[in-house]
Design a protein that fits this description.
Elements lengths: L1 H25 E5 L2 E4 L1 E4 L2 E13 L3 E11 L13 E7 L5 H15 L2 H6 L1 H8 L10 E7 L3 E6 L2 E6 L2 H12 L6 H8 L2
Antiparallel strand pairs: 1-2, 3-4, 4-5, 5-6, 6-7, 7-8, 8-9
Length: 192
């Protein structure tokens, strides 16, 4: 009897260990109950999770959690370069398409020169036309593919692609630029 009990305990321990190892290899981060994979293949290249963060609004309100992925062959200093990258944003509150339009436009303007902002107006309008309202639990994915552009998706359904390396750098600067939505948030997304 004792031998069977020892075998059962060993089996349970090994099973739990295997599940832990398997989960770790699939998910790279969990924050506020939202799990993010450790990597994605983008355009045939592996983009690894660099960081994940919670953005709060007015200190107490959890707005969203976000994960940032970057081509594994590049460092965080290349985050806005011509390199594969993805941002996944998981929302805790409903946000209207109009709110996205206003905040995207305002944040890009904060991160680029006035001349660059003026030159990017066609791309900004194109992206703003893609936005839809989001509900709690929805995820927006923004993926940059060099030579193609920035794809915006809602819950894994593509909404469209905005071409241009310079536009992509301006768009991702909302979270990763010199004047991001929150500097501590940017630091967490870029990793240590």
């Amino acid at each position: 009897m004792k031998t069977k009990l020892q075998i059962l305990i060993a089996f349970i321990f090994c099973s739990a260990f295997f599940v832990t190892i398997s989960t770790h290899s699939v998910y790279g981060a969990q924050i506020e109950g939202v799990s993010f994979k450790d990597s994605f293949v983008i355009n045939g290249k592996t983009a690894t999770l660099r960081g994940a963060a919670l953005l709060r609004y007015m200190i107490f309100i959890k707005a969203y959690v976000c994960a940032f992925y970057l081509n594994e062959n590049f460092s965080k200093k290349d985050a806005l370069g011509n390199v594969e990258r993805r941002l996944i944003i998981h929302y805790f509150h409903a946000i209207s398409a109009e709110d996205f339009v206003q905040s995207t436009t305002r944040m890009i303007e904060k991160n680029v020169s006035p001349d660059r902002f003026k030159a990017l107006q066609p791309e900004i309008r194109q992206l703003n036309n893609l936005y839809l309202d989001v509900n709690p639990g929805d995820e927006i994915l923004a993926t940059y593919i060099p030579g193609i552009g920035t794809e915006l998706a809602l819950n894994d359904k593509s909404l469209g692609v905005v071409p241009g390396e310079e536009y992509s750098a301006a768009f991702f600067s909302i979270w990763l630029g010199k004047n991001p939505i929150d500097k501590g948030f940017r630091k967490q997304l870029l990793g240590k």
